[in-house]
Specification:
Elements lengths: L2 E2 L2 E17 L2 E15 L2 E7 L12 H16 L3 E2 L5 H5 L6 H19 L3 H4 L7 E3 L2 E3 L5 H13 L5 E4 L6 H10 L5 E4 L9 H5 L9 E2 L8 H9 L4 E3 L6 H9 L5 E4 L1 H4 L2 H13 L4 E3 L6 H10 L23 E2 L9 E3 L9 E2 L1 H7 E7 L1
Parallel strand pairs: 7-8, 8-9, 9-10, 10-11, 11-12, 12-13
Antiparallel strand pairs: 1-5, 2-3, 2-17, 3-4, 6-15, 14-16
Helix pairs in contact: 1-3, 5-6, 9-11
Length: 371
């Protein structure tokens, strides 16, 4: 049975992080996120635009996402009759780039559809193949190696099944060597966020000695071909992140042997439909995938949990507990991780958590209703 989106509410919220998060392109102290509420027949679906505050991860940022969602996505979605949430992407496919803005609306419609059907979001997207998901954790660049070692110890003791550490030139080989001395047996990976070039190939080859699960996106954010050359020179698998924005690009990268693993982020690929297609392409070629994170609030985190139930998400993702980032999350209960490093997949309709509306209202920077 078809349905129409009658209203869309955009809300920008500000959430201070408990601790700064540093990557190769800078530090983040607080998140400014755009939340999307889509309403049909008195039922609301919720999504989150995962763009950062600055156009550093990709070309999007909070202010651009607000404008794209308001002025370009909403007019193409409002009052249109959809037979399925999978059709939303067709309505916005001619908008070049801006996958995070379009994807924030798309995932909200998937959540709405699941709530209308009275089923968990994981089931609605074709997942729910597991009752719990395995969790890893992402640790940013720290002010000192001892501080990094302490943080890793905390997360290992909390049960996380995989540790991801951010690297950049000058914070890589010697730092990882110290980590391995202290933690010789943990599942460890390094994320470069495009901090290197092929001129660094000899330096990156040195990472082979540390038995890493993978090196994530070492070269440019839009580069596949150079990763082919780098992967041929490394024993460690390359995981592609920023440069995989579609199933077609995933297919190209796999055929060219540019990677051995793919990170899937809902915002980067534009929502659940394309994320499922990337997943399917990787699965067909025997390439494992995992779910990446963008310092989401509980809403985005809940969507990531649903995504991680798809069958080929066989590696621990970046979906970790709310308390790692926020003094208080905007969902209830907060996302929790078991001592075994797992999150239970919620079984309530939609993304499975309640929204703490009172707390959410206290965080709002701006709000606009479109109808």
């Amino acid at each position: 049975m078809g349905f129409q989106i009658e209203r869309i509410v955009l809300r920008q919220i500000r959430m201070p992080l408990l601790h700064f998060f540093e990557t190769s392109f800078g530090r983040t102290y607080e998140r400014h996120m755009v939340l999307i509420e889509v309403i049909s027949d008195g039922i609301s679906g919720w999504g989150e635009v995962t763009a950062g505050e600055n156009p550093f991860y990709n070309e999007e940022w909070t202010d651009s996402a607000w404008l794209i969602a308001r002025d370009y996505v909403a007019p193409r979605v409002l009052k249109h009759t959809f037979d399925s949430a999978s059709q939303v992407a067709d309505r916005t496919s001619h908008i070049r780039g801006h996958h995070m803005a379009t994807g924030g609306v798309e995932v909200a419609v998937w959540d709405l559809e699941a709530r209308r059907a009275g089923v968990p979001l994981a089931k609605q997207i074709g997942g729910a193949s597991r009752a719990e998901i395995a969790c890893g954790v992402s640790i940013g660049i720290q002010e000192s190696v001892p501080q990094l070692i302490k943080k890793i110890e905390t997360e290992v003791n909390a049960g996380y099944q995989r540790i991801k550490m951010k690297i950049k030139p000058g914070w890589d080989i010697d730092v990882i060597r110290e980590v391995r001395k202290n933690f010789p047996n943990i599942r460890l990976m390094a994320d470069a966020n495009s901090a290197y070039t092929l001129n660094d190939i000899d330096r990156l080859k040195c990472l082979d000695e540390f038995n890493l699960m993978m090196i994530e996106q070492p070269l440019a954010h839009d580069e596949i071909i150079d990763h082919v050359q780098l992967q041929a020179a490394l024993k460690t698998p390359i995981c592609l992140d920023e440069c995989i924005r579609s199933a077609h690009q995933a297919e190209q990268a796999i055929r060219m042997k540019a990677c051995g693993i793919i990170n899937i982020k809902l915002g980067r690929v534009g929502g659940f439909r394309e994320a499922k297609r990337v997943h399917d392409v990787a699965q067909q070629h025997g390439i494992p995938v995992w779910c990446g994170g963008m310092l989401e609030s509980g809403i985005g985190r809940a969507h990531n949990i649903a995504l991680s139930t798809l069958a080929n998400f066989v590696l621990p993702g970046d979906v970790s507990a709310s308390k790692r980032y926020w003094a208080r999350d905007i969902i209830s209960p907060a996302v929790e991780v078991s001592p075994q490093g797992t999150i239970t997949v919620p079984t309530k309709p939609g993304f499975g958590y309640d929204i703490d509306h009172d707390f959410l209202r206290s965080l709002i920077v701006r709000e606009e209703t479109l109808s």
